Amino acid sequence: MTILWPFPHTLVEEAGHLSDEELFARVVKGDGYALAELYDRHACQVYAIAHRLIADPLMLEEVIQDVFTKVWTTRTFDPGKGIFVHWLSSVSRRTAIDHVCSAHRRMDATSLELTDSRERFRRQTDDADFNTPLLKSELVDSMSHLRPQERTVVEMAYFQGYSLSEIASILEMPIGTVKTRLHRALKMLKSFLENSDLEVRS
Amino acid sequence: MTNTKIGCHSLLSYMLGELSEKETREFEQHMTTCVSCQQDCETMWHTHELLLTKEGQPMERDAMLSRIRENTIQAAFSVRPPKKNLHPRHAPQARWRLFASNRLKRSFTLLRPRFVYGVAALLVGVAVGVAGVDMGIFPSSKQPGALIAQLDMHPNTAYRQSSAMAWIVRQNRNYNLMVYAKDLPQQSPWGCYDVWVVSGSKQYSVAEFTVTGRGIGAVSAVIPSNMQFSAVEITLEPHWNDPVPQGPLVLHAQVGNV
User: Fold this and answer.
1) Which of A12, A31, A44 sits opposite B61 (nearest CB)?
2) B80: pLDDT strictly greater than 90
3) How much is the pTM?
4) Which residue in chain B is spatially nearest to A54 when comparing CA positions?
5) Which residue out of A158, A162, A166, A194 would a mutagenesis test of the B interface target, given it has the greatest number of B Cβ atoms within 10 Å?
6) Residues A64 and A34 in one domain
7) What is the ipTM of this complex?
């Protein structure tokens, strides 16, 4: 006979050995301890993604709560097919953008100064200086190697919260071109990062 | 974006969280078979993550995450209760708090000997009780079960092919409800079949089950004898442990007042 004592701590230790996908499968079956373990593992990541777009601490808390409520109730992620961390990143970013846009809609209802929520979003991120100075230093160096058109797409997608179709519309180019530029930029950044890492080591 | 557009070119939309839930599912299915997308995703993910995140001050971040941890978990539980009740007092502590707290370790060390003595005394008591019953020293508490009702459950219109039988047996001070169902459709990966008893205008979940590949399922539940109920229902639920029925009624039977 196995005596589980202390009961919750034993479950925590057991959950600590499981992969994210195995924990998620337990969450689906209503295991609250698995949700707590996923929170402990990934709350920092959710915070970091939301913090890229949101400065207000209260809104940050709301986003984190919403993301983990989605983890608890979703039926969209299949742990047999996808990687939990990838899915969580997508959900975190989408939830953060939704919160910012809905907050701006509420503000727009009382103020007619800025009617375009995206425009307000862009200005907020500019005002808060959410650009390259807040990136990790190695990434700042790598960004400077990108061609201007690729750098613009990266900045609009990651720092200003525009969707790919919005970038295509603003830059007046096909969405396929936006994707190609972003794809190329990400691969080039990876290559620059690897090279700088090698230089540092040598 | 329509379904036909999901393919290799959807990778960046997936990474940036721009696909709908249905499209995300479809793309993940696509990724399981597309080696090119798997390699691209692996190549770009680290850089993508660096761009996507902003670390902030670690002390500030950890303080916030620790402070909102219980509220976040309870907020999720308010939408769907956990299978085992997880009171905030019992919720596992965050690692950074659990291991940082010597006080907690001290209290655990103090509790341990008392617990071991308690369990030892309990085991001795159980052993004496079992031995006593076997030797005829104490009278057995077993009582014969009595069949109260046998129910042929009626399928709802959308589930005409399904059928189920239920038995209610009174034993000791409880009712045992046993259900056997067949020809049921497969539940979703996150779903299950839920057995409800109807008492007045309220439904109470008494058991949940999933079906085999051939659509067969069975479950038993213990119901307190002081509970009055007039019908048994089976629903197909989208989640485990929903507090009220969320899915369609599949089978039902009236039992009169038990």
Assistant:
1) A44
2) no
3) 0.55
4) B54
5) A158
6) yes
7) 0.74
